[in-house]
Amino acid sequence: MIEEEKQNVDSEKEEQPVENEQTQKTQENGGQPHGREKKLKAEVKKLSRELGEVKTKYEDVNDKYLRMAAEYDNYRKRTQKELDERYTDAYADALSEFLPMADNLERALSYQESDKVVEGIKIVSNQFSQTLEKLGIVAFGEVGEQFDPNIHNAIAKVEDESLGENVIAEVYLKGYKRGERIIRCAMVKVAN
Question: For residue range 152-168, what is the model confidence (pLDDT) as tens digits?
Fold first, then answer.
């Protein structure tokens, strides 16, 4: 029986978990962590602090990005609104320049004498030319000018020895441009 008890005690010793060296050393140090554990814990604290700093920086950068995106969107909307308003204002300004001509046409039509009607139409024609000039619009396409297919639209051709080659013989509709932009090509008859 003594041998059985001895075997039981030996088997219990075998069944008990073997403590690792660190745990033994921690217990030997009075429960204080071993040097390596201290280093790991310090490293974990350091990395946690750095992670917190990185998260804070990320949040700052993300906040700046979101603010910038919102500012850009507001800028885009404001610019589009200003552009629309500018277009509306320019349109209204241009039309207001033409209103006196409409008034004079109505006055000319109210006269019964043909001389007054012709005089009224001449006044309107002069006002129209002045208005176009104020708006920076230049008329082109005169008889005798050299034909340019970029700004003239030839709708007829005539053989006329008194005119040179590719010279405008007749103007059906004047052309108009503002700066380099062609508003309407001149419709002309070209000689030879």
Answer: 999 999 998 888 889 99
Q: Please check whether the domain covering 138-192 is classified as CATH 2.30.22.10.
A: yes
pTM more than 0.70: no
189 close to 158: Cβ distance less than 8 angstroms: yes
Supply the DSSP string of the chain, one letter for each residue: -HHHHHHHHHHHHHHSPPPPHHHHHHHHTTTPPPHHHHHHHHHHHHHHHHHHHHHHHHHHHHHHHHHHHHHHHHHHHHHHHHHHHHHHHHHHHHHHHHHHHHHHHHHHHH--SHHHHHHHHHHHHHHHHHHHHHTTEEEE--TTSBP-TTTEEEEEEE--TTS-TTEEEEEEE-EEEETTEEEEPEEEEEE-
Question: Tens digits of per-residue pLDDT, 32-53?
Answer: 557 899 999 999 999 999 999 9
Stretch 92-112: mean pLDDT: 82
- Tokens representing 19? 């403590």
